[in-house]
Each structure stands twice: as C-alpha cells, then as structure tokens.
Amino acid sequence: MKIMVINGPNLNMLGKRSKAIYGDKTLSELDTILRKEGESLGIEIISFQSNSEGALIDFVQKHSVKASGIIINPGALTHYSFSLRDALADSGLPTIEVHLSNIYAREEWRAKSVIAPIAKGQISGLGWRGYVAALRTLVGELKKET
User: Fold this and answer.
1) For this structure, is 99 an active site residue?
2) CB within 10 Å: which end of the chain, N or C, has fewer?
3) In which element (H, E) is residue 62 found?
4) Beta bridge partners of 44
5) Residue 103's domain is classified under what CATH number?
6) Which of 119, 125, 82, 122 is nearest to 104 (CA)?
C-alpha cells in the first residue's frame, strides 16, 4: 500500500519559518518520521513538496494511479485552489487535509478551505503530530481497522 504525502507552498521552509506557528522540525525530519511510521504500518510513503500549484496537480495526476490514499497540506492553496481540489477529487482516493497550525485560530481568511469538502477529514493545529495522526487514521480506514 502506498500513501502520497503532499506539501504545498512554503512548507519547504519548515524549521526556519515562523517556528512559533509551524514548529521547529524541517520537512526532511517530518518525512523521516512519516517513513518510519509507514514502515511500522506496512506501507510506503510517496512524498512531494512544491511551491507550484501546477506541479502539485501534476504529481497527484501521475501518482494517484499507484497510491491508496493522500495526505495533503496545501498551504495557502487551501483557501483558493479549485484546480488542486479538482485533481484530488478526480483521483478518487481518500484524502486527509492536514495543517500544522490551527487555521481556525488565525486570520479569518485561513478558516476557509476549498479542499475540506472533498476530504475524508481535516486535522488542524497538532503540529507535525497531525501528519502522524492522519497517516494512522488513513491506513486504518484503508485496512478497515477500528
């Protein structure tokens, strides 16, 4: 089983960018944590990050045929990228939207997600642990565990 973990704009700056909001782990450290967790669950992680909306869409379209589910932190694209939303919906894969910070406790515009209506669920405000929770939940759903 393969799970796609997709990170959008500016997430390549984790560990450097606004540590009080996004934490001090780098994207590479987050990937390592998820790969180890994936191994313990018997699944493979396919990770990708881009600052480009088109590259994210291309990645979803190319790799969704080989994957069983998607975990995505769309970054600022959360709030307006209907093309990314359509690519995720068209993949037919269960998707969990993740945000490091609590998007509902920040600026008003951050509370609106165009991705949420097509996602199986959304995890917001748990930092890097939100990705682990999303992975465990998604794999559990796919394996029909309780």
Assistant:
1) yes
2) C
3) helix 53-63
4) 2
5) 3.40.50.9100
6) 125
- Token couple for 18: 């606004």
Token pair in block for residue 8: 């959008």
Sign of the CA dihedral running 32, 21, 121, 73? negative
pLDDT of 50 > 60? The answer is yes
Q: Phi and psi dihedrals of 104, rounded to 5?
A: -85, -10
CA distance 30 to 25: 7
Q: Which of 63, 79, 80, 99 is catalytic?
A: 99
Domain count of the chain? 1
Contact 57, 48 (CB under 8 A): no
Its domain, for residue 45, covers: 2-143
Active site residue 63: no
Report the chain's C-alpha Rg in angstroms. Answer: 14
Give the DSSP letter string of 82-125: HHHHHHHHHHT--EEEEESS-GGGS-GGGG--SSGGGSSEEEES
Cα→Cα distances 102→4, 7, 61, 111, 130, Å: 22, 16, 29, 9, 11
Phi and psi at residue 77, to the nearest 5°: -65, -15
Mean of the per-residue pLDDT values for the chain? 95
